[in-house]
Amino acid sequence: MKFNRKKHLDQVGLLNFDLHLFFFMKKILIVIIGVFLIDGSIFAQSQAEISRDPNGDKILKGLISRKELENDTSFAWWAENLKGYTPQSLAVAELRKDQNIQFITFMGTWCGDSKFIIPKFYSLLDTAGFPQDRVTLIGVDRNKKTLSHLAEELNIVNVPTIIVIKNGKEIGRVVEYGKNGLFDKELGEIIASIPASPAQ
């Protein structure tokens, strides 16, 4: 049987196309799962795996409820890190304008940056009157891993990471303090960059 180079290249091309399609569909599935998770009414309670690290810090891995962080004495940093915070006005205004966005937020209950930013993020949402059922909070361990491999699929490298979603599509993300050191200002800029939909 004679080797047909053109036929071989066509088959390799189809294989590459199939692989690209597979990975594209996998990412879409992850986003759909993420959007499904965002419906707070489904997960009113924490669905996290609880452990302790060698430092004694309580680590929540998986879906976390805000109430759990506010009320658990292991997380006394929540109330402490709200003191003196005034939400950035652009971010408040943009959140009030577009309440059809959703957030998938990754944090570490062991992470200093998460302890500092996440209570302020929720204070920002409260100030804007943003619906809490449009926010999903996911805890990661020190290796940035979570249940169902969501952190890996969404390329979470550092925490906290706040992902802005509109119509099932990622619009942008703020990683840690953001590029300019003001997470709320950057969040407001991302939301302001979303084109207005006809319904707005």
- SSE series: HEEHHHEHEHEEH
Low-confidence stretches: 35-44
Instruction: Please tell me what the overall shape is.
Output: globular
Number of H- or I-type helical stretches? 7
**Tally of distinct domains:** 1
How far apart, in Å, are the first and last alpha carbons? Answer: 64 Å
| Structural category | alpha+beta
CATH superfamily: Glutaredoxin
Question: Would you give an account of this structure?
Answer:
The chain is an alpha+beta fold and 200 residues long. It has one domain: Glutaredoxin (3-Layer(aba) Sandwich). Helix content is 42%, strand content 18%. It has helices at 5-38, 66-71, 77-80, 89-97, 112-128, 150-153, 183-192; strands at residues 47-52, 58-64, 102-107, 135-139, 161-166, 169-175. Strands 1-2-4-3-5-6 form a 6-stranded mixed beta sheet, sandwiched between helices. Strand 5 (161-166) and strand 6 (169-175) form a beta hairpin. Helix 4 packs across helix 5 and helix 4 packs parallel to helix 7 (183-192). The model is unreliable at 35-44 (pLDDT under 50).
Short recap of the structure:
This protein is α+β, with helices and mostly antiparallel strands and 200 residues long. The chain has seven helices and six strands.
